[in-house]
Each structure stands twice: as C-alpha cells, then as structure tokens.
Amino acid sequence: MSGPPLLQIRNLETSFPLPHGMLRAVNDVTIELNRGEILGLVGESGSGKSILGFSVMNQLVAPGRITGGSIKFDGQELTNLSQRQMRELRGKRIAMIFQDPMMTLNPVLRIDVQMVEAIQAHARVSHAEALARARDALAMVGIPSPEERLRSYPHQFSGGMRQRVAIAIALLNEPDLIIADEPTTALDVTIQAQILSEILRLSRERNIALIWISHDLSVVSRLADRVAVMYGGRIVEAGEVREVIHAPRHPYTRGLIESLPGGAKRGERLRQISGTPPNMLFPPPGCAFSPRCPLRQGLCSEIAPDVSNEDSHQFRCHYPLGTGISKGSAHEPA
C-alpha cells in the first residue's frame, strides 16, 4: 500500500471510572490501517474489541472516555474534535455497522426516509437524487426489487435483509473507513457467507478500509488482509492473516485457533481455552493471560511483556511459541 496510513492509533487508552476503581477497557493499543485494507480484530467477549471501535467513532457510553494516546484519521487527530466536528465525519468518511441492525434502523420510519436523511445530512442534493442513491445502494448489497423495498418498514425485512440495509446505509456516502462490529454473528451460515462476499467485493471495488470485529477467527481468515488479536484490552498478536493463523506466536492466539470446530476430528470433544477472561477492573499482575496460559513461568505473573517485532508480525509474550522454549497445547494444564 502506498501513501501514509488512513488510520493511525497510537498507545490508545480508553477507561471507565467506576466506584471501585478505573476499568481500562483499551490499554496501550497501537494499530495502523491503509486505504482499502481489511483488518480483522478478534478476541473473546470482553476483550475490548467493540470499545476500540466506539473509541474511533467517539461514541463511547458514559462514563467511558479516552484517557490517553492518539487516533489520527487521514492525518487529523480525532481525540481533540468536538461532537459537532465528529458528526461531520461519522456517516460520511467513517461509518459503523453494528451487530444488531436495529441500532442503525428506526423501527417507525420507512427505509426510504431513513436513507434519504442519511444522505442529506452530509450532501446538498435533491430528494429525488437522494432517493435514487438509496435505491442504488440497496441494489448494490443484493436486495431484490429495491424500488419497492424502499417503501418498507424495518420489521418487514428478515434479519439478513435488515443487516444488508444497514450495510447499504453505511455505504451511502462512500466512506473511507467502515468499522463492522460483528455484523453477521446473529445470521445463519448461508446469509453470513453472502454478506461476507458482498462486503469483500465492495471494499475492493471502492477502496474502502474495513475493521472487521469478530470473535470468529475462521470468518476473519477468509475476509481480512491482516489480523489483530485482543485480550484484556491489549493487542497480544498482530500480523498478516496467513502468518498469524499458520504460525501463531502467542498461546492465546493458538488457543483460539484450536477452539475452531473445523479443527476437531469427528466424535472428538471441541477444545476450549480453560478459565475465563480477566476482570479488567482488577486485572492480574504481569501478563493478563498468565492465569489461563499453560506455558506460563514465574516472569509471566510479574511483568507485562513488551511488544516483540518480527518483520510485520508483532506479539506480546515472554515465551512465544516457535522459539524452542514454549511447548505443549494451549489447552493443556500448566
């Protein structure tokens, strides 16, 4: 990719001050994303993936706030912008697709009304022109009879069709970046595959950068160029998809890969990572994964590992896989 990164996140911290202490949901996260590139952001529930996405959009739920670091979009620092300035970017240059399309759609308004409003909020166009753009956007995401469906209400669509409408709305103003927060999780496998195919095609055709947030590595491996694995609010491993999937360096990443149903033999019990994710209000000392890690040693529970770099592959682990030091499965007891 040529030119400077479209999105540069540096040492980002997002925190929630609570009565019993400070919950750091995103902790020292650094990410770069180029134009037209797809980044898969994976990890268990509670790892900080969605909060990272909402931080970029500056749509954190109170009392959450960015407490450190930098977010630059096309060279512009976002953490200093007012809500009015952010509204000019949201929906126009940065868009978000939610897991539940009803977070995007108003149940009491027709689809045409909602789409026309989304266009006219950022562009001075006539109602007729906005309506034509809305119709074309529905056709683009594979909704049949788009002229007729524009006059429908959200409840008249299936779950898969509602998600397609939400994707169409995200694409209306031709954004440079889309953040997709597990948009296919609630859909059946066939519809999921169709939507993944449409998203990939549209991203390539329009050179749209995409952050695809998911807990499913199998989905990310089919869609993304690069993958970043989050655990306990940190990026614990990141790199090219093929490199991370086939040669993971962090035990947590290997645990996620081994947990995929496709890796189990017929009749064999599905594997899982033992233990539970950390309570980020009272995180464990040292490496946050150490209480669950089968490869932990004394240093792991004392000092948080720094980022190690191997070309385009980064990871946070004192005893990374593939060094001759680490042995065993991510599911074996220590």
TrEMBL record:
Cellular component annotations (GO), alphabetically ordered: plasma membrane
Record's keyword terms, sorted: ATP-binding, Cell membrane, Membrane, Nucleotide-binding, Transport
Keyword Transport: yes
Domain of life the protein comes from: Bacteria
SUPFAM superfamilies: P-loop containing nucleoside triphosphate hydrolases
Primary localization class, coarse: membrane
Mode of membrane association: Peripheral membrane protein
Compartments reported by the entry: Cell inner membrane
Domain ABC transporter: 7-257
Gene Ontology molecular function terms on file: ATP binding; ATP hydrolysis activity
Biological processes per GO annotation: peptide transport; transmembrane transport
PROSITE patterns per UniProt: ABC_TRANSPORTER_1 (PS00211), ABC_TRANSPORTER_2 (PS50893)
CDD domains for the chain: ABC_NikE_OppD_transporters
PANTHER family found in the cross-reference section: DIPEPTIDE TRANSPORT ATP-BINDING PROTEIN DPPD (PTHR43297:SF2), OLIGOPEPTIDE TRANSPORT ATP-BINDING PROTEIN APPD (PTHR43297)
Family to which this protein belongs: Belongs to the ABC transporter superfamily.
Protein name: ABC transporter ATP-binding protein
Species classification: Bacteria, Pseudomonadati, Pseudomonadota, Alphaproteobacteria, Hyphomicrobiales
